[in-house]
Amino acid sequence: MSDSDPHAGEDLADWLQEVAKRPWVSGPLSINPSGLPGAGPTAVQAPRLRGHIQNGRDLVGFALLTIAYLQYYYLDVMVQIGKLDKVVVFVSSTAA
Asked: pTM, whole model, 2 decimals?
C-alpha cells in the first residue's frame, strides 16, 4: 500500500495522541463531537427497545424448543416402559 503523502503516518500519530489526551466523559460522544446535541442536525436515533425484543424472542423460542424436546423425550420413555415384557410372579398365599 503506497501513500501519496509521506507525512500521513505522522499526521495520524499526532491525531491519535491528541485524541488520547481527551477525557472519556460521555462515552463515544467525547470522541465524535458531531454527536453532541448542539452540533447541528442529526438523524433521529431508533429506540433501543428493538434489541430487547430480539433477545426476548430468542429466549421464548429457546424455551419452546426445550419444552418440545422434553415432551418428546418423556413420550419416548413412556413408550419404552409400555413395551417392556410383562413378568408374572406367583406368590403362595400360605406363607409360613
From this structure: 0.36
